[in-house]
Amino acid sequence: MSRPRFNRILLKLSGEALMGQGQFGIDPETVNGLAAEIASAKAQGHELCLVVGGGNIFRGIAAAAKGFDRTSADYMGMLATVMNALALQNALEDQGIDTRVLSAIPMAAVCEPYIRRRAMRHMEKGRIVIFAAGTGNPYFTTDTAAALRAAEMGCDALFKGTSVDGVYTADPKKDSDATRYDHLSFRRVLSDDLKVMDAAAVALCRDNNIPIVVFNIRQPGNLAEVIAGGGTATIVQN
Ligand code: UDP
């Protein structure tokens, strides 16, 4: 069974996708490479919006485990996503693509506040919208923010870029017998606790009938190929 061609797509990138070979932070060359890939996906005529994580800089839950107050740590994590969003915005604008960052936590001097109608208008004008600061609430993740924004923006699919080319029966980096699923149901992902996105994000996509496409973002050229309906990926749907 082949994958359909989706028109309006939300692309979720984890913060780690911006790190390159490093262990922390933002690697400009990697960000430029991602921007070029996003530009070629957009050139195929898709409407694109993005949610970027912050795990390359700060993760609330990990900091809380070391004694940070969880709520403060989560706000720090959300601020980290704003840094990543600004880095991506700059790189995309270098590619000649009008890009707007809309933050769930208003910060007027840095970017626009998230207002759904405004985001819709930007997309109608052919701009790429980057949703920053997650949902704006602690105790959530940017995966959930991605599912939420995909539903709000009426996206046809959520593309989740990871470091592997789909969802496997076991961790392919640890188990050589692990096999990749082409298709999965939301029910199976939730009942078997398969590591696609966190359960809240998966449930939101299931309830709003938004397929999740899991693919490898680290492989050059893959984003445009997978978005065009080719390449290797796992699709999760009802
Ligand atoms: N975060 C949050 N609420 C949200 C989204 C994110 O509190 O709606 C915080 C949380 O601390 C999280 C951090 O921001 O650890 C970075 O996001 P995430 O871990 O999802 O980034 P990724 O793993 O995708 O890089």
Automatic annotation (TrEMBL):
Please name the InterPro entries in this protein's record: AceGlu_kinase-like_sf (IPR036393), Asp/Glu/Uridylate_kinase (IPR001048), Uridylate_kinase (IPR011817), Uridylate_kinase_bac (IPR015963)
| Main location group | cytoplasm
**GO biological process annotations for this chain's record?**
'de novo' CTP biosynthetic process; UDP biosynthetic process
Where is the protein found, in the record's own terms?
Cytoplasm
In what residue span(s) does the Aspartate/glutamate/uridylate kinase domain sit? 7-216
Cellular component annotations (GO), alphabetically ordered: cytosol
What is the activity-regulation note?
A: Inhibited by UTP.
The record's listing under Pfam families reads: AA_kinase
Chain sites annotated for binding ATP: 12-15, 55, 59, 162, 168, 171
* UniProt catalytic activity: UMP + ATP = UDP + ADP
- Sorted alphabetically, which SUPFAM superfamilies does this protein's record hold? Carbamate kinase-like (SSF53633)
* Single GO term (MF): ATP binding
* Entry-linked NCBIfam families: pyrH_bact
What is said about its interaction partners and assembly?
A: Homohexamer.
What protein am I looking at? Answer: Uridylate kinase
Q: Which organism is it from?
A: Sphingomonas sabuli
Upper lineage: Bacteria, Pseudomonadati, Pseudomonadota, Alphaproteobacteria, Sphingomonadales
The gene is pyrH
